[in-house]
Amino acid sequence: MSDSxxxxxxxxxxxxxxxxxxxxxxxxxxxxxxxxIKGNNGSGKSSxxxxxxxxxxxxxxxxxxxxxxxxxxxxxxxxxxxxxTLSDNLYIHGIDSNExxxxxxLADLGLIKRLDTIVGNLSYGQQKKxxxxxxxxxxxxxxxxDEPCVGLDDSTRILTTKFxxxxxxxxxxxxxxxxxxxxxDSETITLGGNQV
Amino acid sequence: MKLIFxxxxxxxxxxxxxxxxxxxxxxxxxxxxxxxELSSEALNDVFYSILWIASLLTIMVxxxxxxxxxxxxxxxxxxxxxxxxxxxLIFTKILIYWILIGIPISCLGTxxxxxxxxDISSLNxxxxxxxxxxxxxxxxxxxxNSLSLNKGSALGALITIPLLFPILILLGKIVLxxxxxxxxxxxxxxxxxxxxxxxxxxxxIISFIIKTHxx
Lengths: 196, 215
What we know:
The complex is a heterodimer of chains A (196) and B (215).
Chain A: E1 5-16, E2 19-30, E3 34-39, H1 45-53, E4 60-65, E5 71-74, H2 86-92, H3 100-108, H4 124-136, E6 142-146, H5 154-169, E7 173-177, E8 187-191
Chain B: H1 2-12, H2 15-35, H3 40-62, H4 68-72, H5 75-83, H6 87-117, H7 122-147, H8 155-179, H9 185-214
Helix pairs in contact in B: 1-6, 2-3, 2-6, 3-6, 3-7, 6-7, 6-9, 7-8, 7-9
């Protein structure tokens, strides 16, 4: 596999309870490129992401990641501890809330004054913002996002789009699913019925 | 090393998860002598049994949701994606539960057994056997709970209970030997050997089971 290709997916298929979600699906992910997985509810977008991450095994075909490709992933679950404060949640993800870069992002997201708030007391949108900080501060080569904009206000959606655009310029690669449009240059895979 | 700090922090901040079981242990140990009419000699004879059963129940309660919260909030998935393995997380979680619950229970149990027998040599029986047995109990109950992680079924308990019997029999033998003045170090070494096997294999088995749940 050439160095410019981070992921090579070849003829994978997936079914749940004999309901075929997709089959014979092949695509590559190149450095500095984004891939938008589109499809209706239940078309297998999240399943495809879980297959790519190695959480769920594919029914057939092969998935080949380039060596030393580290991945940063944000799925439907925010990976937050409801009984901990905002700064404690950052700590368990290895993020220092006193660093200037973290403080800037917290200020941009309107969370800087909520550092000592218990996460269980934050709204869903605020929790989603907090989960996004982990993505904003990551150093991984590949970012995988499953519906990252659900529950976010307009300003945070714009901030997310800007961040993703800047990451692409840094030669990072992105795979995402989103029903809410994200304005970045990306190739599209559409899942739906038996058609790919 | 960072993982140990993070897991320690996560459990430490959840007071109910570790202080609650310790209080349950204290309650059983203190309330038992108050609720039965036994002579001090008879109580002395059965005290170790109470100690083992109290530690067993305490560990069972404390380990009940050892993986559940991490499973529900996506932490297990997150960890698996980042590390491509769950072994280190499972191993560390069990270790931290032992540090925050197993060790305090062992120390409290030893304290009560010395008080009960008025004999400092109880330290040599109670402390090592409690330290080893609580670590074994945590591993076995964690295995059981991983089996019924997202199902809330009794499967985990059903599988765990038979695995506990040999350990309880071994603990009984230790007390019996100690009461007759026989050597107990060989039995403690046997328990230690069991523990060493369990430390290595149980986290592997649990990580495989949890990976299956994540799929």
